[in-house]
């Protein structure tokens, strides 16, 4: 089986889908690996290091994609300006793509993959389970995103996170609200506490609230009727956050509106596996409740965002409120060394779990799409869209 590792073309994306270490694992399993020249430079992996691990390197991007049985990427396929073609069109019909596809928010790309009979496995659709944990790239990247969100907020806030005293007087610590104590939230809490902020956390899950307290946050709000997992669950435990009903979502918004006036920073990263992120903060809530100079960092923007005012890939000041809203996409891509190290191993664990040497035509080996984790994360195969979250999003958009 031929595995191709192209360079990422999304703006400000520094990650790559394989390291020399993971290449070594593929080669040891009998797989052939080819890496686009320079693909690892932002993560500080040289072409020489990939070749030493057993890979080939190639400058011919189109030929690399055509050669591959499986293409490993980090982000969804995009239009390649240099080649004048969409990356999905570079894939050989019948081949397999493994990446963060965010299918509910990239329906046109899903349709293109479907039309070319590409098998697409989305790493943001890996189920939260004991079996899926070694492959759970969303959790791995959520840790990085939680850290980066705090660093970004500290840079945007017109005051320090920590309190201080001097001959000129004293200043208080910033109030930071973290919505959801899942993987993003817990790392945000730890990072903000480390910078000296007064950190508050909200989550409907009692177990998540306990974790937040242990990390140094004060739990506030969300004294709601027990309703199982909801949008504010932050993707903890079994299957991640579930889609909240309209009534519960309004209750959650009401609780948040009560908390927003005293907050200097709000960090929200509520993700629902393979579906649109819930809008927890409306434009009216921000404009009526938050003070000028406050900062919102919407970590969930890759799946639509938790704030109605978020603009994909942008940081701007909302003129009506004076609040800075940051919805920078792929925050983990700004921390490429650690992100690549974690993501590459998640992907490698998935590929090797599904690889069946000696199976298939002529005993050449085969990729087993029936493995439980792989099956759950398969969005498109054989010209059919299989992923339920994607089908829900298409139905909501009026497609069939």
Q: Strand-residue fraction?
A: 15-25%
Distance between the termini: 34 Å
Largest sheet: 8 strands, mixed
**What best-fitting shape do the alpha-carbon axes yield?**
globular
Poorly predicted runs of 5 or more residues: 227-240
Count of distinct strands = 21
Proportion of residues in helical segments? 25-40%
The Rg value, from CA coordinates, equals 22 Å
The largest beta-sheet arranges its strands as: 3-2-1-4-7-8-20-21
Average of pLDDT: 92
Helix-strand category = alpha/beta
Counting DSSP H or I runs of 4 or more residues, the number of helices is 13
Describe the structure.
With 400 residues, the protein is an alpha/beta fold. 33% of the residues lie in helices and 17% in strands. It has 13 helices and 21 strands. The chain has helices at 20-28, 47-52, 61-67, 87-90, 107-115, 137-156, 183-194, 206-214, 246-259, 283-289, 336-354, 372-377, 388-396, and strands at residues 2-5, 32-36, 56-58, 70-72, 79-80, 85-86, 96-99, 119-122, 164-166, 169-171, 175-179, 198-202, 218-219, 265-268, 295-298, 315-317, 324-326, 355-356, 366-367, 378-381, 384-385. The strands form five sheets. It has an eight-stranded mixed sheet with strand order 3-2-1-4-7-8-20-21, with helices on both faces. A seven-stranded mixed sheet has the order 13-12-11-14-15-17-16, with helices on one face. It has a two-stranded antiparallel sheet with strand order 5-6. Strand 7, helix 5 and strand 8 (119-122) form a beta-alpha-beta unit. It is globular. Mean pLDDT is 92; it is low at 227-240.
Gist of the model:
It contains 13 helices and 21 strands. The chain is of the alpha/beta class.
């Amino acid at each position: 089986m031929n595995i191709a590792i192209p360079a990422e073309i999304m703006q400000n994306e520094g990650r790559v889908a394989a390291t020399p270490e993971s290449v070594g694992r593929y080669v040891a399993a009998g797989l052939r690996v080819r890496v686009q020249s320079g693909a690892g430079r932002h993560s500080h992996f040289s072409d020489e290091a990939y070749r030493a691990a057993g890979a080939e390197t190639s400058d011919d991007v189109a030929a690399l994609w055509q050669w591959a049985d499986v293409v490993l990427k980090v982000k969804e396929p995009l239009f390649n300006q240099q080649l004048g073609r969409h990356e999905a069109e570079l894939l050989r019909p019948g081949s397999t793509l493994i990446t963060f596809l965010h299918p509910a928010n990239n329906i046109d790309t899903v349709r293109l993959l479907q039309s070319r009979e590409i098998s697409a496995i989305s790493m943001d659709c890996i189920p939260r389970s004991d079996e899926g944990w070694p492959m759970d790239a969303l959790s791995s990247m959520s840790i990085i995103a939680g850290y980066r969100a705090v660093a970004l907020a500290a840079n945007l806030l017109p005051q320090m996170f920590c309190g201080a005293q001097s001959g000129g007087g004293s200043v208080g610590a910033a109030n930071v609200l973290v919505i959801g104590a899942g993987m993003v939230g817990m790392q945000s809490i730890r990072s903000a506490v480390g910078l000296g902020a007064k950190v508050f956390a909200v989550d409907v899950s009692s177990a998540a609230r306990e974790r937040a307290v242990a990390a140094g946050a004060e739990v506030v709000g969300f004294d709601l009727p027990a309703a199982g997992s909801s949008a504010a669950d932050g993707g903890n435990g079994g299957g991640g956050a579930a889609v909240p009903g309209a009534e519960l979502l309004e209750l959650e918004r009401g609780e948040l509106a009560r908390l927003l006036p005293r907050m200097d920073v709000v960090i929200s990263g509520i993700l629902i596996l393979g579906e649109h992120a819930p809008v927890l903060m409306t434009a009216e809530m921000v404009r009526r409740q938050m003070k000028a100079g406050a900062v919102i960092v919407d970590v969930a923007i890759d799946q639509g965002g938790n704030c109605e005012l978020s603009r994909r890939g942008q940081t701007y000041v909302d003129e009506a409120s004076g609040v800075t809203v940051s919805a920078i996409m792929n925050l983990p891509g700004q921390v490429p060394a650690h992100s690549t190290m974690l993501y590459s191993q998640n992907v490698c664990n998935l590929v090797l779990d599904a690889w069946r040497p000696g199976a298939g035509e002529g005993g050449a080996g085969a990729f087993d799409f029936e493995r439980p984790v792989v099956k759950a994360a398969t969005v498109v195969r054989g010209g059919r869209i299989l992923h339920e979250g994607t089908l829900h999003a298409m139905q909501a958009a009026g497609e069939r």
